[in-house]
């Protein structure tokens, strides 16, 4: 398996609207899987096995790309996700969350996050690198949104991270800690773990001039 990407129904709705093609995708969650192998028969064997597993798990309308043009057309839904999401709220920008959980927890975490967004009235298409448990919400915000809405966005992200850490996941799968997630490091790594990071940071950067204020924002003993 080369790639395994999950797009939720909201993402597919956004893509269909943004794409403008006649042959829209069914507006339900989609799993995009790409296989590679040493021969055509090797790839065929993998796709047949995947189709069997997906069908057993309730998957429907399984579709295969027969050539390169079809493959590119199907993957377009994934590759245009960010700009398609922005079109759901014209004039918005996207704040992309980033969490990673054990694969056995991925579905439950995504369902719970979707429920949070519905409860709080937040628009946030979700997509995931389903092969490694890493997933993102594209939370749509405008500069003139009322404080109540921006607080709702923060709550979605906070609940997502707290829930992720509770099942042994990480607050960042690939985007990094930066400013926004530094507050969660002690919850994830413990006081001693963060203390070790701080000691290394202070040893390498005693003046605090290398990317100041990021990840480990407090210096000193």
From TrEMBL:
Keywords: FAD, Flavoprotein, Oxidoreductase
Keyword hit for Flavoprotein: yes
Domain FAD-binding oxidoreductase/transferase type 4 C-terminal stretches: 2-215
A single GO BP: lactate catabolic process
A GO MF term: flavin adenine dinucleotide binding
Cellular component aspect of the GO annotation: mitochondrion
InterPro entries in alphabetical order: FAD-bd_oxidored_4_C, FAD-linked_Oxase-like_C, Vanillyl_alc_oxidase_C-sub2
Keyword Metal-binding: no
E.C. number(s) listed in UniProt: 1.1.2.4
Transmembrane segments annotated in the record for this chain: none
Cofactor(s) needed for function: FAD
Top-level EC class as recorded in UniProt: oxidoreductase
Similarity comment: family membership: Belongs to the FAD-binding oxidoreductase/transferase type 4 family.
The name this protein goes by in its record: D-lactate dehydrogenase (cytochrome)
Species of provenance: Octactis speculum
């Amino acid at each position: 398996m080369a790639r395994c990407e999950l797009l939720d129904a909201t993402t597919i709705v956004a893509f269909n609207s943004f794409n403008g093609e006649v042959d829209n995708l069914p507006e339900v969650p989609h799993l995009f899987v790409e296989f590679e192998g040493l021969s055509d028969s090797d790839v065929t064997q993998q796709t047949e096995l995947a189709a069997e597993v997906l069908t057993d798990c309730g998957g429907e309308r399984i579709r295969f790309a027969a050539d390169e043009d079809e493959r590119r057309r199907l993957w377009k839904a994934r590759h245009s996700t960010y700009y398609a999401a922005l079109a759901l709220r014209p004039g918005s920008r996207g704040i992309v969350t980033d969490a990673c959980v054990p694969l056995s927890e991925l579905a439950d975490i995504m369902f719970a996050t979707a429920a949070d967004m519905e409860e709080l009235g937040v628009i946030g298409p979700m997509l995931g690198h389903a092969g490694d448990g890493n997933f993102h919400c594209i939370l749509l915000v405008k500069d003139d949104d009322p404080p109540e809405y921006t607080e709702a966005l923060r709550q979605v992200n906070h609940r997502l991270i707290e829930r992720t850490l509770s099942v042994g996941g990480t607050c960042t799968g690939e985007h990094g800690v930066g400013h926004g997630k530094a507050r969660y490091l002690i919850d994830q790594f413990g006081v001693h773990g963060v203390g070790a990071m701080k000691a290394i940071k202070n040893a390498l950067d005693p003046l605090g001039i290398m990317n100041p204020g990021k990840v480990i924002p407090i210096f000193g003993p």
